[in-house]
Fold this sequence. Notes:
The complex is a heterodimer of chains A (262) and B (644).
Chain A: E1 8-18, E2 27-37, H1 42-55, E3 77-79, E4 82-83, E5 105-110, E6 118-120, E7 123-124, H2 128-134, H3 156-166, H4 173-177, H5 184-196, H6 204-218, H7 227-231, H8 239-253, H9 256-261
Parallel strand pairs in A: 1-5
Antiparallel strand pairs in A: 1-2, 3-4, 3-5, 6-7
Helix pairs in contact in A: 2-6, 3-5, 5-6, 5-8, 6-8
Chain B: H1 21-28, H2 34-37, E1 41-45, H3 49-61, E2 64-68, E3 86-87, H4 99-109, H5 116-135, E4 161-162, H6 168-186, E5 189-192, E6 195-203, E7 206-214, E8 220-224, E9 227-230, H7 251-258, E10 263-264, E11 269-275, E12 298-302, E13 319-320, H8 322-326, H9 336-351, E14 360-363, H10 365-371, H11 373-391, E15 400-409, E16 412-413, E17 426-428, H12 446-466, H13 480-498, H14 505-520, H15 526-546, H16 558-582, H17 606-609, E18 611-616, E19 625-630
Parallel strand pairs in B: 1-2, 1-9, 2-5, 9-17
Antiparallel strand pairs in B: 3-4, 6-7, 7-8, 10-16, 10-18, 11-15, 12-13, 12-14, 14-15, 18-19
Helix pairs in contact in B: 3-6, 3-12, 4-5, 5-12, 10-11, 14-15, 14-16, 15-16
Amino acid sequence: MTASHGxxxxxxxxxxxxxxxxxxxxxxxSYRIDSISDEASFLEMLDVLNxxxxxxxxxxxxxxxxxxxxxxxxxxxxxxxxxxxxQRGTATCQLHMRKFKSGANIVIEPWRATSFPIIKDLxxxxxxxxxxxxxxxYITSQTGGAPDANLVPVPKPVADAAMDSAxxxxxxxxxxxxxxxxxxxxxxxxxxxLNLLPQxxxxxxxxxxxxxxxxxxxxxxxxxxxxxxAACPKEISIDVIxxxxxxxxxxxxxxxxxxxxx
Amino acid sequence: MTTATDPRLNSKIPEGPIAxxxxxxxxxxxxxxxxxxxxFKIIVIGTGLAGASAAATLAELGYQVDAFTFHDSPRRAxxxxxxxxxxxxxxxxxxxxxxxxxxxxxxxxxxFRSREGNVHRLAExxxxxxxxxxxxxxxxxxxxxxxxxxxxxxxxQVSRTFYARGQTGQQLLLGAYQQLARQVGLGGxxxxxxxxxxxxxxxxxxCAGIVVRDLLTGELQSHAAHAVVLATGGYGNVFFLSTNAMxxxxxxxxxxxxxxxxxxxxxxxxxxxxxxxxxDPTQSKLTLMSESLxxxxxxxxxxNPGDARPAAQIPENERDxxxxxxxxxxxxxxxxxxxxxxxxxxxxxxxxxxxxxxGVNLDFxxxxxxxxxxxxxxxxxxxxxxxxxxxxxxxxxxxxxxxPATHYTMGGLWVDYELQTTVPGLYAAGExxxxxxxxNRLGASALMQGLADGYFVLPYTIGNELAPxxxxxxxxxxxxxxxxxxxxxxxxxxxxLGTNGKRSPDWFHRELGKIIWDNCGMERTEAGLNQALADxxxxxxxxxxxLRVTGGGDSINQTLEKAGRVDDFFQLGMLMxxxxxxxxxxxxxxxxxxxxxxxxxAKRDDENFAHVAAWEWNGDPMSAIRNVEPLEFETVHxxxxxxx
Lengths: 262, 644
């Protein structure tokens, strides 16, 4: 495969959502990018825009970003109506300008979800995710009391499946893509990660119950659209939602003493 | 010039043989009764591996903990980006590993510039970390029988690295974050997100608390505590281009330094050999490719300068497998500093590859032939995908191109054996301290150190410090020292907003980074360092007079945040260059071209420089005072570091 190096895109128009604060009215503003290397990342293009705005004495566009390696989950842009933009399995920060064409009009919005209120411009508040983890997204294990790491073997397929769900970066694209603003993929990814492992069995059903109910306090309901899976930059499978629902159902309806022994 | 040993730099290494020191400390330390722990308030700044694990464990023990992060969630700390793995002396492979061997490898890897006692303790607790993380549900890679898998890493001849695909840092941080989240849910930790430290407060020689800035409102707020832990990471972003996350900064450590915490060995910075080369001038950061790739990738450049043929068309006998040739016993797994310099020299000799001729090949063809594509994909699949997304090239077909980039900083706040800085009550953990890696860190040891400090060291040593303070009053936030610190911070941020110059903080950051990279990067010279020290003060003055920060100070303003961080990077940059200039030897990541042997390897000067340089604030970085802690080696024999 050969790549084109050093090509430039020209005449880009950006329609960027600007909003001064949580309660202010927002609107799109248009900016022009005359020329940008196709090697630049999408966020580097926004850096260029911001330098230009500062040069002109205007406020830079606020957007969240940090690692720029697709792992911290900070970046959160709706690009042309798609969470994280057009490239499948790719967070905004890993998207490069070679995926766009000269002359394009690119629409950039924040995540749109009631449970993620806008803070400013393209930055939203995703702390409801932390509330879900705080309610049960952990394995209780006091520091210092752990047995030898090889005491309990974990079959490789189980470890691999747990890792597939644990890959979630907590970016919130699943919520932004969902017509209902549901957080089932995020929550289920964590439930599946911990409930699949032998170490997670002791709290399995209590965890499912408490995380699902906390999720329901903040987010909309899942109606199986599947948009979350399509938007997920880590391509986490919607199957984890079935696993979460199964554990939640068991937690609510089965005989608790009985399932604690299973 | 070197001055005499300073009594404030007492390392407090416990008595006894090296293998007994940590146990001796634990047996002799003072304890706080469980019911009394709640009477102590401990502040933890930063929620990466070191901070999250410390905050969670201290809260479990019963202390009142306030944790602060400038991110929206603790889960976003930069520990999350570590790819390759975490070392532990488990010897699960039966290949001859032991606590002593991990200790020795770390001391040698650090080029004999770290403290024996601290490093031995690190190796001892490494085994507990793996147990702890597995119990928390970290999905480490497993063998088919269900037991833990290992891989090997640079600078070691055993396989002691535990990993979770190429996302080990992510999985370990999520483990620690989940323990922290549990404590937040239980009320053991008050978590302040989107809040940045802007000053530490010292009253009567003791750390009394901190001043923070709420990033959403710009409001300044004081917090008093019995102890403050800085777990705020390293300062690699002083180079502007580095593999650090965009927001990584030195501000917390630097503000503590200005309040009396000595800053140790700032010139020890690590250049990581396997990063994706810069591809265009607007680039904002560099991306690391895990060092684990060197297990199966072979580093090579064309034998002849100017050979522009595609890799596949260059026959074997016209390739130079640089590391295998120079370091036959470690080959492609030579330590980071050595591998980086070899790559730099290959590129400097005109044999660089890629459109800008600024990289070397990392070739997997032999591994794919030997193991099959499936196995290579299993091991490195996500790294290969990441490479392809960034470079547009498929590494299964063409070699990756890599080049060194700044990655980690071994220097940091000086701490004693208990991780306490020169300001009593103020601690530094993880990358923010200087303690364990000497002049060069081995791969997969950063995660180990962060978690060791947070889970297994601070929870003991802080109790030892606090026990005598039971029921004694501490200064409250109404103390004039807090009010003064708040006022100074308020003035500082108003000044950034009011300068009304012409240049953005990023512009200054880029200029600063260029000076530091050119003169205090992979190879340093006396002339270059003097040049940097001549160029930096006028650029810093320009920063103070020509800065432009748009927007206001009472709502989120990322440009303003950046201005504060760049200000501190300027001051640190000057200190780094001074430290590099004073250290007239080459060791680990600090390579002074004047000090090398006939084969171009680093030449240490143990007679004059087997010490830690701990810098003391004296009004400005150009007049900081250099103090010295001698390093005493009782167990290991000082040897020339050879990986041939």
